[in-house]
Specification:
11 strands; 18% strand; binds manganese (II) ion; alpha/beta; binds adenosine monophosphate; inorganic pyrophosphatase (n-terminal core); 12 helices; globular; five-stranded parallel sheet; 324 residues; 2 domains
Length: 324
């Protein structure tokens, strides 16, 4: 990252008193970890910070230091608006015209990031946005204490699915090591955010598992509003089912279609190295990484499935044994 970009960000942070930080809808551990790490480090420096998430903090992440500070309402004014782990301005889930000001700082690691802020701190090679924050928080003159370290570790663990993705580099593991030294309880975070499942989530998975379909290296399923009602699942996401499906062998692309209120369908893609699903998600107005991407598409379940399946079939080469 160019020195001047960091210097500019540091200067606007120093000058600000009221800071608003946002991340993306249906937040994952990197969205929440980035949001809370930056919030707590700025608060320690005497800033007044409001961390905002459209749907608040999912229960699984409420143990994180600072989680109780998150609100789902954007303050009407602030000196500074920062977005973390959000590839584009639509990702917060709030209508863009309701944002209190143009974003000042954008800190992210998605290759599809649109550089929408005045100051864009974007590194596609970072395994998580918290990996970038580990470097820039001290460069901003802020401190990484145990609470900040815990949040940074959460982003690393969730975005790399426990250090198992291609995006993990020696630097990722060095940072994890330093975060443990700073007091981040790695085993506890790992257990809470990756291993533990609640009963209702697994019942919800059951609905999707019953509808699994497979064709020429593509595997997909759907989850409906009715499924969530039937089991009492409180979120509007897939309870991470897509990552379970991605462990099935011999598959090139996994997709999950999650019905949303208002006639929309959230699509998640996961792929094997060599199959770029970020480009396809981007073509549907979404984005992400080569091996993990998503988009929210208008239309009913059947129509969206047909469009997305047609487009996805076009990017994979059927393997002989699958097409036989
Ligand atoms: P998901 O399928 O929601 O687990 O997301 C996989 C990856 O794609 C994550 O890095 C997300 O941040 C990103 N992503 C998901 N949906 C969108 C979207 N609508 N626009 C841009 N990026 C997205
Ligand atoms: Mn994220
Ligand atoms: Mn991320």
């Amino acid at each position: 990252m160019a020195e001047t970009t960091i210097e500019k960000a540091k200067a606007v942070l120093n000058a600000a008193q009221q800071v608003i930080i946002l991340s993306h809808e249906r937040p994952d551990g990197d969205a929440i970890g980035s949001l809370l790490a930056l919030t707590l480090s700025l608060e320690r420096a005497g800033k007044n910070v409001t961390p905002v998430l459209l749907e608040g903090v999912p229960s699984r992440f409420r143990f994180l230091p600072g989680a109780d500070k998150v609100t789902s309402k954007i303050p009407s004014n602030g000196d500074l608006l920062i977005l973390v782990d959000a590839a584009d301005l639509q990702r917060t889930g709030f209508p863009v015209e309701t944002l209190p000001r143009q974003p000042d700082i954008n800190i992210d690691h998605h290759p599809t990031n649109t550089d929408y802020a005045d100051i864009n701190i974007v590194n596609h090679k970072a395994s998580a946005t918290t990996e970038i924050l580990f470097d820039v928080i001290p460069q901003f003159g802020l401190e990484i204490d145990t609470y900040v370290a815990t949040n940074l570790m959460t982003g690393l663990i969730t975005d790399t699915i426990g250090f198992r993705t291609d995006s993990v580099t020696p630097r990722t593991l060095e940072i994890a090591s330093e975060l443990i030294s700073l007091g981040a309880p790695m085993a506890e975070i790992y257990a809470r955010v990756l291993n533990q499942r609640n009963f209702v989530s697994v019942q919800y998975w059951g609905k999707g598992l019953n509808r699994l379909e497979k064709e020429n290296g593509i595997l997909w399923t759907s989850l409906t509003i009715e499924d969530r009602k039937a089991v009492g699942y409180p979120g509007s996401d897939d309870a991470d089912l897509v990552n379970l499906l991605a462990t099935i062998e011999g598959i090139q692309v996994v997709m999950i279609f999650i019905e949303q209120i208002g006639g929309k369908v959230k699509v998640s893609w996961r792929s094997r190295p060599g199959v770029d699903v970020a480009a396809i998600a981007f073509s549907f107005g979404g984005g992400g990484h080569e091996q993990a991407a998503g988009a929210t598409i208008e239309g009913d379940m059947q129509e969206v499935q047909e469009r997305v399946l047609t487009a996805t079939r076009g990017i994979i080469s059927p393997s002989p044994e699958e097409s036989a």
